[in-house]
Amino acid sequence: MLALFLFIHIFRIMPKITYISHDGKKNTVEVPVGLTVMEGALQNNIQGIDADCGGSMACATCHVYVPENWYDKLEKVQDAEQDMLDMAYEPKKNSRLSCQIIISDQLDGLEVTTPIKQT
Q1: Which of 30, 107, 110, 112 shows the smallest number of beta carbons within 10 Å?
Q2: Which strand (E) or helix (H) includes residue 97?
Q3: Is the pTM of this model over 0.85?
């Protein structure tokens, strides 16, 4: 029984996140729990997420669109994030900063779409 526990713990399956570019290209990668969607993009060389401020929420260059079926599963947008989103390129009601979306097991299968450009 202990061997099975250790096997599951060591070889834990990471949540899969799909990054969709503005032109429809999809990249699905595994991102460790506790990282952000932005960090997952940077670590996997995903195009379209610039992350100029490195995740300190001082810009909007990690702006993504989250599908409606996933939006309510995320932590609520805080005022500081909304202020940054107001400066993003073509913000929509489903816009989020990917630096503020922390990966959890519940986000396995999350898809995010990048805008045509970051500002």
Answers
A1: 30
A2: strand 95-97
A3: yes
Check residue 13 and give its pLDDT.
84
User: Cα dihedral sign for 27, 68, 72, 92?
Assistant: positive
Could you give the domains of the chain?
13-113 (3.10.20.30)
Nearest to 48 by CA among 78, 77, 18, 70: 18
Distance from C-alpha of 12 to C-alpha of 18, rounded to nearest angstrom? 19
Q: Are 62 and 118 a contacting pair, CB within 8 Å?
A: yes
**Under DSSP, is residue 102 helix (H, G, I), strand (E, B) or coil?**
strand
Reference 49, options 57, 58, 37; nearest CA is: 37
CB 48 within 8 A of CB 19: yes
Q: What is the mean pLDDT of the chain?
A: 92
Which residues, in sequence order, are bridge partners of residue 106?
none
The residues facing 19 across adjacent strands are: 27, 112
Written as one letter, the residue type at 75 is: E
Rg (CA), the chain: 15
